[in-house]
């Protein structure tokens, strides 16, 4: 009866088993303790430490998500309120848009063309632009449909295209 040749893995396992049998009880105990310590360390690094890290960060992440949810709910309420308001007549919308644009000063030029308006900006601050958008949206019921803005050292430059009144999308 001839023996089959061992595969490289079987040969390595056989060599390890022979080496283990040749070790004394003290050395075996030391290797078992070392193996257990490495197993505990691996378990800590792979399973426990990442879970503790997630648990430590989750309250801050939940708070941030709650703030975002509150902001989105406030925006949704504002949108509902704006949709519920009656449309502004075209003449009043144009007048409100012109008045709001005049508040921006010499850095803004408004051009009206039917139910569209184009505001050209040059060096307008972000606070002024934000206030203008709020005023235009609430007073003139105009909606921005296109914006091409660039922020520079003196403020925003570019154009904002608005759709006016009841014809706004």
Automatic annotation (TrEMBL):
Superkingdom of origin organism: Bacteria
Protein known as: Type II secretion system protein GspM
Source organism of this protein record: Roseateles koreensis
Organism lineage: Bacteria, Pseudomonadati, Pseudomonadota, Betaproteobacteria, Burkholderiales
């Amino acid at each position: 009866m001839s023996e089959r040749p061992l595969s490289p893995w079987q040969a390595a396992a056989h060599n390890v088993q022979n080496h283990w049998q040749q070790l004394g009880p003290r050395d075996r105990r030391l290797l078992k303790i070392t193996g257990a310590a490495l197993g505990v360390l691996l378990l800590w690094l792979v399973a426990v430490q990442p879970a503790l890290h997630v648990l430590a960060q989750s309250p801050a992440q939940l708070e941030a998500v709650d703030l975002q949810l509150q902001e989105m709910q406030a925006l949704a309420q504002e949108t509902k309120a704006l949709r519920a308001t009656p449309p502004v007549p075209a003449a009043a919308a144009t007048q409100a848009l012109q008045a709001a644009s005049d508040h921006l000063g010499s850095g803004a030029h408004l051009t009206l063309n039917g139910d569209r308006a184009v505001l050209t900006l040059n060096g307008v601050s972000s606070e002024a632009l934000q206030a203008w958008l709020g005023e235009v949206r609430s007073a003139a019921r105009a909606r921005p449909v296109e914006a091409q803005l660039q922020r520079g050292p003196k403020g925003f430059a570019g154009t904002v295209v608005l759709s006016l009144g009841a014809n706004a999308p």
